[in-house]
Structures are given as structure tokens and as C-alpha cells.
DNA sequence: GTCTATAGAAAGATAGAC
DNA sequence: GTCTATCTTTCTATAGAC
């Protein structure tokens, strides 16, 4: 691996970026190699040189997107706010509701669900998220088991919020759902 | 429309049932007419006789599945239990977590999201669900706006629970999420 | 209403020159 | 490493006989 290459100018990198964007928009199964070529401006020969099959391209793109998205969540957690505030901030973060979750939507994607190597980063993303939220909940004094359940519920409200927003075409539906959850959590502060 | 036909023996009906099952398993876009033929045992000529295009078949199948699934939820709400119990029962109902929601998963389906007539039943399903839960919450004394938000949160936890279960391959993840939500709701009983 | 045969387009992938 | 041309398979749909 040569140093001093600007990776963003490599054909491989451009293919990857285009694939990530297309997978976010339409999913893996519904994205064709041809679309990746058109979006990236790279030629067919290069695609199959760098990625012997669509599966290989998908693996690289999904892995990277999962890491990126987990990092986004983690960055919101390195602050010095109290755990309840960090959780609240995660829940109420501004999201592109109608776009859906780049990772969560892959659980309805045939290409992903039928390929363990594509599903693995998806699992890693959600395990990471739940660990992050579960840890904060424990910090705030909630016993481990209950913290795990509550973390799963919080992550689920966000995922389900995306579903509601897309189903109704209304981003407000997602905001309504996370607001409902935030309100429930807030009330917990009174009686622990 | 002639009476006294056993609809379940008609080719049209068998095609519809096969399509519903396949759409539940793989989604609309990923299901081919050929698969519907094989599953139903009906011939190609009959398919295109009853449904001029895949889109027409999808419309009929999705509409019916959405109605069926909403009825399942409604049946759980006609009992004479107090509203909090009905909500709790909805949340903790036994579900095939790894299969995903037949309707919710369609929000990641290209064929559905790009066709208003396919999306409409999906929207109807979720609007119906939220109305059902929101009504019960209002009955239990929660003001309208807050009841809507909380209903959206409850529906979202279920939808997100499916996502978590499929992402991790573990149905327990969904149970954990709904348990976390049920526990939060239970605690609300103490201070309103 | 149902059948078999087939059309036309797009999918994923390969070949072989440069 | 990249290009253009091409192959094979599968998809959605139609044709036309019965």
C-alpha cells in the first residue's frame, strides 16, 4: 500500500463513494453495477478490476458506511454532559427521516440478508449503538439488564421512526415518535 | 361478481395468496412473476389474464395484506380490558421477529416507495395503528397531543424491534426492546 | 380462462486490446 | 489499470392457439 496517494482521487475510492450513496438511496439489491459506473464516472473495466463482483463492492461499501454511521453516534457520546443528556441528544438528533437509516434499511435487503459478510457490519452497528446507550443508562444508575432493554427500546424507536416517516411521507411522524420516547424517559427522572 | 364461488379455488385467489407470501418473505421488487407462478402452481397465461402487470398483482396483494394485518391489531383491541392492558398486550404480543413486519419492511422496497398506489395501504396501516393506540392512551387520561406522540413511539418500538432482531439474527433483541418500552410505560402509572 | 412459445430489455460478468 | 465489445441469464410482458 503506497503512501502519499490521495485516496479520493483513486478509481477504487470513487467507486466506493458512489456505491455507498446508491446503497443509501435504493439498497444493495436494487443498485446495479451500471448505476455505480454512471454515478462515479469510472469505466466498467475498472470496476471489475477493483471489485471482482458486485458482492465484493457491496462488502466494502457496507462495511465503511456502518463504521461511519457508528462513529457519528460515538462522537455524540464523547461530550462531558451527564448520561441522561447524552441519551436525550441521541434520541432527538436531527435526522433525514424520509431517507431512512442507511444501515437499518439493509435488514430488508435481500442481497444483505442472504450474505453473512454483508450482514456482519449491520450487526456490529446495532450492537455498538446499544452498548453505547446501555453504558450511559448504567452510568445513570439503572441496573444492567434493565439498561440493556431500555437501550434496545431507544434504538428501536429511532429505527421505527424512520419506518413511520417513510410510510406516511411525513418526517414529523418520526419526530413525534422520538418526542414520545423522550417524554417517557424524562418522567423517569422523578421516581428513578 | 358471481356468488357461490369458493374464492380460494380460483386461480386469481391462488395467485394473490402466493404473492402475499412471497412479498412477506422477500418484498415486492425482489419477487418475480415466475416465483408467483411456481408457488401457486398457476400458469403464466392466467397470471397476465387476471393481473395485466406485476404492478397490478402487487397492488391487490399489498392492499389485502395491509388490511389483514390491521385487523389482527384491531382484534386485540375489541376486548373489554382497560386501555393500559390493551396497549401492553399490543406491545408484548408474540411476533415472528426474524421475519420482520410484512408492512413495515415495504418502506425499504423500491417497487412500493416509487408507486403511490402501493404506498397508500402502507400508510393506512400505520395511521390505523397509531389511531388505535392513541385512542386507548387518551382513554387512559393522557392529553391528545401527548397520546399521539406516545402511540407513535410504541408503534416505532415494534418496528425497530424487528429491525434489531433481523440485524442481529436474534429474536430476543426484539423482545428486549418491547420489554424496555413496556417497563417505561408501566412506571408512568405511578405519577400519571 | 388457460396454455406454450417467445420477444425485448436489463441484469451481472467476462474477453481481450491497449 | 482502464477501455470497449460481448456473453449468458433472467426479468417483465406479449402472441396466438386451444
Describe the structure.
The structure is a homodimer of 192-residue chains. Chain A has nine helices and no strands. The first copy, chain A, has 192 residues and is mostly helical. Chain A has one domain: Tetracycline Repressor, domain 2, CATH 1.10.357.10. At the A-B interface, helix 7, helix 8 and helix 9 of A face helix 7, helix 8 and helix 9 of B. The first copy, chain A, binds a DNA duplex (18 and 18 nucleotides) through helix 3.
Supply database-style keywords.
Tetracycline Repressor, domain 2; about 190 residues; homodimer; mainly alpha; DNA-binding; elongated
Short recap of the structure:
Two copies of one chain form a homodimer. By secondary structure, chain A is mostly helical.
The CATH homologous superfamily of chain A is called Tetracycline Repressor, domain 2
* Count of alpha/pi helices of chain A: 9
Name the helicity range of chain A: 55-70%
Low-confidence runs of at least 5 consecutive residues of chain A: none
CATH class of chain A: Mainly Alpha
How far from one another are the termini of chain A? 53 Å
* Largest sheet geometry of chain A: none
- Per CATH, the architecture of chain A is Orthogonal Bundle
Q: C-alpha Rg of chain A, in Å? A: 19 Å
> Proportion of β residues of chain A?
under 5%
